[in-house]
Amino acid sequence: MPSESPLDGIARLRGTKAEKPFAPYFQTRYTCRRCFQPFDYPQPPSLRRRFACQRHCAAVNTKEHIMTVSPVALRRKTECKPHPTARYWKKCDVEALFGLPFLELVYQAAEVHRQNFNPREIQLSTLLSIKTGGCPEDCAYCPQSAHHNTNLGKEQMMDVDEIVEKAKIAKSRGASRFCMGAAWRGPKPKDVETVSAIIKAVKGLGMETCGTFGMLEEGMAEDLKEAGLDYYNHNLDTDPDRYNDIIHTRRHEDRMDTLGKVRNAGLKVCCGGIVGMNETRAERAGLIASLANLDPQPESVPINRLVKVEGTPLADAEDLDWTEFVRTVSVARITMPQSYVRLSAGRSNMPEAMQAMCFMAGANSIFYGDKLLTTGNPDEDGDRILMEKLNLYPLQFEPEGEVAEVEKASGIKADY
What we know:
Largest sheet: 10 strands, parallel
Structural class: alpha/beta
Protein name: Biotin synthase
Pfam family, one: BATS
Family: Belongs to the radical SAM superfamily. Biotin synthase family.
Shape: globular
Strand content: 15-25%
Number of helices: 14
Function: Catalyzes the conversion of dethiobiotin (DTB) to biotin by the insertion of a sulfur atom into dethiobiotin via a radical-based mechanism.
Order of helices and strands: HEEEHHHEHEHEHEHHEEHEHEHEEEHEH
Cofactor: [4Fe-4S] cluster; [2Fe-2S] cluster
Distance between the termini: 88 Å
């Protein structure tokens, strides 16, 4: 007697024909609180929500690592797809990197760096605030916010000719990229016209251009691209789960929306964050995971160390240990192997040995100049001396004469 299927057996006992199968199990979308990776779990309609808490990541067995139904995910009909251009980084995997022995982590990051870049080349950028103060956002770290009493007045936008002169000076000192920032929540259409004229003028000097102007409306990114902008900076700032603790006037989703517009316009992305804002190591891992899982990954990743300014809510934040900052740079290099990792704000308070360790761990870009928007930065002479000590040289630097011949024959860059 041929074996019967379970449906046939039930139908025979009931005296009915198995013409229609039972209602299929539905798929419920869950999101891991720890690594944020969504997944579908088959669940029969008769079961209650108590079965919604399922383990997803076998590598970590903690109470925090529990699945819960995500209302946003339940409304989405599209299937979760793997990261098409790079590995998908779970937050728990990034946290595991942070937990490696310090020198082992730096060594692994240095290996990844050498597989993707010349470890002696440093990309130099200069940052200029073209419109300072009076920003309506309430970022807890920013002295330009109108919500904080930092004795920083609101200034009008700089004149085009003055900006171009600053760019010429930056180029003469070795900077290959000129970055411009404006303290706006987002530019108005008339602001985009003004900024576009500035971008065209700076681009005419033969420099790369980068802008950070806040949230963009539809069509603005295309206008900036047409004007000659190469990069758009829009940082994710901190762990998505902690975002509303640092900023209350916008959401993490607003940042992602602008980044999507920038990518769709064909602009390169400069996107990083700030550490030292009383966050935990797990929250630093969340920041790096959110950056590494952008698709595609940012071409430039600025890692900022909080500059504490009197009058801001984070003026009394606890100092971040220097090894944690180096760990952050190392993990950024491992998770984003082809991105330029930039030592950004806070470098003026970093000893030379600490900066050298960061370069060893994969940092290959710095802001070059004595000021970052409104906070201090090492002067050019100090940076030049440090680079000479470490036998580093600027990106796009071309040795001359016999040195160039030796370099060409050996394949090794010579000192400058």
